[in-house]
Amino acid sequence: MHVVATAGHVDHGKSTLVRALTGAEPDRLPAEQRRGLSIELGYAWTELGGHDVAFVDVPGHERFVATTLAGLGPVPAVMFVVAADDPWMPQAEEHLAALDALGVSHGVLVVTRADLADPGPTLALARRRLAATSLAGVPEVVVSGRTGEGLDRLRSALAGMIPTLAEPDPAAPVRLWLDRAFHVRGTGTVVTGTLQAGTLRVGDRLAWHEEQVRIRGLQSLERPVETVSGVARVALALGGHVPDGLDRESVLVTPGAFGDISVVDVAVAGDPPGRPLLHVGATATSVQVRPLADGYARLRLERPLPLVVGDRVLLRDPGARTVWGVDVLALDPAPLRRRGAAARRAAELADGPFEPPVAVVDEPEQRTPALTPRLSEAAAIIREHLAGFDAPDATTLADLGLDAADLAALGADGELLRLDARTVMLPGSDERAVEVLATLPAPFTTSQARQALGTSRRVVLPLLTYLDRTGRTVRLADDTRRMRAR
């Protein structure tokens, strides 16, 4: 399945277009149908070119921009809608700014209501607006949802776009941003969202902070399924105890795969205010911005979120209708206590690759012992038996008597490359991996990286995470990656 969001000003025909393409009504609420105005996110789907395509129909009114961003955030492609009989309007500009800040580059520009006015001037203006953004050069189609003119051309344009979308990794850990949560009589709590990567199965357990929930039932495209992989629209019926507070804007994740992050260092173009809103996935929270220097800042989140290095998120000033695109560079970095620490930190972030001084989860001790003959001998044995992009498994490490603190000491001394508390490789493996990964088409999946490096999933996951953390690769929203530009 592939997922496409709508975008554009209120009353420019987004819902009418989705209705014409799918035959389904995206406006679910009686108030929406009565007023002809989308208030909540709407969903519908159809088949295009042999692919199932789900549409997320977002509100166009300025009062519902937070809901709009919840729909746009997890979605990799957009149908940008402008009406032929209306000039370029403020919400079109705001939606375009958000899409550009998120880096969305796949889409179709659609001029609607061609039966009411000459679409030429509107098309030319919209083309100029998009030309300076990530959506420059996308296909253009003129349609009328009322008469059906141009709908076949739009279907063809959308079908042609689908093969250009990145294929997410079905084996990636799940991070499901919830955009709806409700109670169904006889079923219990149901939550929905856009699954960007990974795989869900009936019976799986997912984490919400310290709590876990079980997937009792699973639907996609309004059909019961036993398993579904991203990208997909999904509905989960949760079994057992459902924690209080689990609702829309919550995030369900693979247990143990993500941390609850409260502070991040980021790259940001521009000068956001001191307390904007941060939007990521379908979630928003207030943040405190501490400028560092030269396009870098530290964000302190009002509530922790499962962020990862490489996330692309939005900062928004609701009063000024202004957005900033932000790249997450480091998680829970060390405090800035000394005079000049902010400027030095900005220089570290700019110089990259870097490894932020963060605590290692589950490491039994925070010690760095001097390199003893035992450790030197163990390192020599490991180096002798490793080849290529390999890493000793847990049994080998146990046989050598090496614990997490020993691996930390070997990494600090340069005897081995330490990726995390339990994984080490030959020194220089990271640089060699960067050379290999740079030859892959961008973005690339975890599976493509594993095959190119000729290693196992056990090794490639911590290696890619290490490259994310040290600034060589960027993890994207769909769990694919690209090399960081230098």
TrEMBL record:
- UniProt record, GO biological process: selenocysteine incorporation
Which keywords describe this protein according to UniProt?
Answer: Elongation factor, GTP-binding, Nucleotide-binding, Protein biosynthesis
Domain Tr-type G, first and last residues per copy: 1-169
Q: Does the keyword Nucleotide-binding apply?
A: yes
Protein's UniProt name:
Selenocysteine-specific elongation factor
GO MF, one annotated term? RNA binding
Which PROSITE patterns does the protein's record reference? Answer: G_TR_2
The source's domain of life comes to Bacteria
Q: Name one GO cellular component term.
A: cytoplasm
- What Gene3D superfamilies does the entry give? P-loop containing nucleotide triphosphate hydrolases (3.40.50.300), Translation factors (2.40.30.10), Winged helix-like DNA-binding domain superfamily/Winged helix DNA-binding domain (1.10.10.10)
